[in-house]
TrEMBL record:
Membrane topology term: Multi-pass membrane protein
Stretches that traverse the bilayer: 12-29, 41-65, 72-90, 102-124, 173-190
HAMAP family with a match to the protein in the record: YciB
Source organism per UniProt: Tabrizicola soli
The keyword Transmembrane belongs to this UniProt entry's keyword annotation: yes
Name recorded for this polypeptide: Inner membrane-spanning protein YciB
Length: 202
C-alpha cells in the first residue's frame, strides 16, 4: 500500500510528541512518588508508563493517516511497550533506561550484519527517499553502524553513572540531536556519491 501524504508538521508532532510529553511529565513530577495498589512508584516510572499509551496512540494515528508504518516505528513501539511494562512490573527504572541501549545496539548489529554480507540494509530502507550510488550507501552504512554502537555505549555509561534527570535530558534531546547532526554532516560529505536526477529531454 502506497503511503498517503500528510501535513509534515502534523507528522513531526505525532512522531516527536510522545517523547516530549514524557519529558514534560517527568520534569513536573520527578521529585514525587505515587502509591498505586499498595506499591510506591517514582515520578520517573509514572512518566515512563504514561508514555506507553501516548506512543501507541501516536503510532495508531500515523497508521490511520498515512496507511503505513515503518519497520523502525514498529520496532521502537514494541521496545517501549515491552520495557515500559517491565519497568512498571518490577518497579525498576533500569529496564526503561537500558531500552535505549538495546534499540541503538540492535540497529548497529542489523547494519553490521548487512555489511558483513556486502550489502547496505540502509539503502534498502531509504533508497527511494535518498538517491545515492551504492558506494555512498556502503560508506554511510558503515559510519551509521559505528554511530549507533557509540550511542548504545554512551547510553549504557550515562544511565549507570549519572542522575536520572541528566539521562532523561540526554535521551530526549542530546542523543537525537547528535544523531541528526551526524546524518546532516555525512549527507554533506557524501554529495559526490549522490545520483544526478535525469535531465528532461525535449
Amino acid at each position: 500500500m502506497a503511503e498517503r501524504k500528510i501535513n509534515p508538521v502534523l507528522k513531526q508532532v505525532l512522531e516527536l510528541g510522545p517523547t516530549l510529553v514524557f519529558f514534560a511529565i517527568y520534569m513536573w513530577i520527578k521529585d514525587e512518588s505515587y502509591a498505586i495498589a499498595g506499591t510506591e512508584y517514582s515520578g520517573f516510572i509514572v512518566a515512563a508508563v504514561v508514555l506507553v499509551p501516548l506512543l501507541l496512540a501516536s503510532i495508531a494515528a500515523l497508521w490511520w493517516l498515512t496507511g503505513t508504518l515503518s519497520r523502525m516505528q514498529i520496532f521502537v513501539a514494541f521496545m517501549v511497550v515491552f520495557f515500559g511494562g517491565l519497568t512498571a512490573w518490577f518497579n525498576d527504572e533500569s529496564f526503561f533506561k537500558m531500552k535505549t541501549t538495546i534499540v541503538y545496539g540492535t540497529f548497529a548489529l542489523i547494519l553490521g550484519a548487512g555489511l558483513m554480507r556486502g550489502t547496505s540494509l540502509l539503502q534498502w530502507v531509504m533508497a527511494e527517499a535518498l538517491p545515492m550510488k551504492p558506494e555512498g550507501w556502503m560508506i554511510l552504512t558503515r559510519r551509521l553502524a559505528l554511530m549507533f554502537a557509540a550511542l548504545a555505549i554512551a547510553n549504557e555509561a550515562i544511565w549507570r553513572t549519572q542522575s536520572t534527570e541528566l539521562w532523561v535530558k540526554l535521551e530526549t534531546f542530546g542523543m537525537p540531536v547528535a544523531l541528526f547532526l551526524f546524518l546532516m554532516a555525512n549527507f554533506a560529505m557524501l554529495q559526490t556519491h549522490m545520483d544526478e536526477p535525469p535531465e528532461d529531454k525535449p
